[in-house]
Amino acid sequence: MKKLSRMILAALMATMMLISCMSFAAAEEPITLRVYDWSDSTRAYRDKFHEEFMANNPDIIIEYTQLTIDQFNSTVVQAIIDGTGPDLFPVPTTLNLTTAVNEGWFLPLEDYLPQEFLDTFLEGTLAEGVQRKNGVLYTLPESGSLSNSMFFYNKDILAEANVEVPKTFEDFRAACKTITEKGAGQYYGLIEGGNQGNRCDILLRALIQAAGGKISINSRALTVNGKVPYDTEEVKAAVELLQGIVEDGSLYPDTASISAPEARELFAQGKAAFLCQGLWCIGTWANDHPELNYGVMTVPKGADNGYTANVESIPWMGIYAKSAHPEAAARYLQALYDTETYHYQADVVKSGSYVSVIKGVNEANMVDPVMKEYYEAASQCIDIPIATSRDVKFYDFYSTVVSATPSLASIAQGILSQAIDSPMDYLTMLTNAETAAWQAACQQVGVDFAELEFSNWVAGQPYTDADYAALQ
Fold it and tell me: What three-state secondary structure class fits 335?
């Protein structure tokens, strides 16, 4: 009997050891969740969030890869097409939600995210055509929409050069020249991330709008007098301003070869007086350069009817359709926007990095004075016509159209690098080629090319719901 008891005890102990070993093995083999994006300005807060998330979810390891937008668009997209994409990634800026969904890149989020979580988002932020396709939610927004073409200026440099904050094209060029001469090689007037096409595109479009030009934002489609408006007098005024700054020697010498994050860092080091970027700079500088004495200004105007347009909402992060861990990816998304256990949303607003899309976060955490200054400047932006607001089928147009080359971004880069002698010649060729491309795409998807034109649009005036209705 004792021998039998010993045998039973031994068997029990062996079983317990086996269970223990199995549990230990399971604990040693957490899943790896791969997350890719380009949110460099919030890296410190994201790293902090990842540490907290992994502490609360020991079964998950976060492998976070951060790239520039151009790097993402040129490298990660191919991995997605090849079926080896990360578990979570944003829609590439060169594409749109319709294209991504049609290609089968994302899973429907409502299959994995509870409604009570989705109800925490601000009204209108999970919109059709932006985060949803045919009513199905595929992506979540990173932040609230706010213009990313404000100008930052170094107050100390302006004071040393005895220069006032410029309000016109003429004043801006003169300020850049005076500052550069005063800097004597130590600092220059303007710096930009010249090797990133998206930033050069944004800069040129902002200046065209400031000259009173009717042009869309974010590579969207609008026409004027039946064609793409890339060779107008307002475009010429913006081009001449950039060319003048370059010819004056007022552009930071390495601008053509640096990225937007590098330009942001050099600005913070006092290498240039002006930089055209967005809200995300504020949090980065608060962390890395708290001594930086700077302000925010609107884009200098080239005409009385000059303006800066509000940005459209854009899609961001979704769960890869071929992810082996969609439930874990959904856990990550819920935590990223959670305000009870985690602090990421509050941190990015307090730092001035982003505007949150979660109810109550902005009101409770917007304390940075420069962020408030940015908001004040951005509040002067106006709504302009949006083709998809007139007809949602234009989302299909955007997923179909094949853009002409060289693009507006490439021409802007050519101006900054002095690689193009006569940019208006290239802009005229682009106008004709892009007009033909837009006409072909409209015909292919069954939308009226004429509806890309808004006959009652007055440049410099906000475009309202009543204006849309008047076109019906």
Answer: helix
